[in-house]
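Entry — protein

Goal — fold tokens:
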Amino acid sequence: MVLTPLDIHNKEFPVKMRGYDQDQVNDYLDQIIKDYEIVLKEKRELEKQLQFSEEKVGHFNNLQDALNKSIIVAQDAADRLRENAAKEANIIGLEAEKHADRLLDEAVAKAKKITTETDELKKQSRVFKQRLQIMIESQLEMVKNSEWDDLLRPAEEEALNIPTLKEILSVSQSKDNAEVVEETPEVSDVDSENNYEEEQDSIEGTLPAIELPK
């Protein structure tokens, strides 16, 4: 059993002849008690510090374990992420290659189609040029033909003997008068004048249209 300062203070020793000086012994015990109390106090402080240190160490150990577990989990996650990234990169690379091949094939097909269409347009252009050249040459030959000179030469003016309206009326009137004289030899002057006016009206009404020269 560990002694306490109180046990030391209450300790009594029997007195014998020729023994130690009691006052000196008591003074010494008092000093021992003080030192013992100091030692016990330091022991309690050290125990508290030790307990705190042990708790702290335990906390750090737990934290270290958690960190180790977190590191392991993070490493596993990083490994999985790296593997997944590698797989996705491989898949994307394959898809990109397929897409690139498809685009390249489409580009080549379009280039061939454009080349074919260009050649066809050039061929049609050459044919059109040849036909246009032949047509222009033929038209030029036609323009250079001497018949155009004869056709475009100005015509000589010809005198047209076209009877006037007065002459036509005079001729018609003379013929009618002759016919009237033969059919009715005896006619008065009044009747002759009336017949003349009627004949003039009849002649003007039945006069054929005369086509004037253009």
About this structure: The radius of gyration is 76 Å. The chain has a mean pLDDT of 76. The CA atoms of residues 96 and 213 lie 90 Å apart.
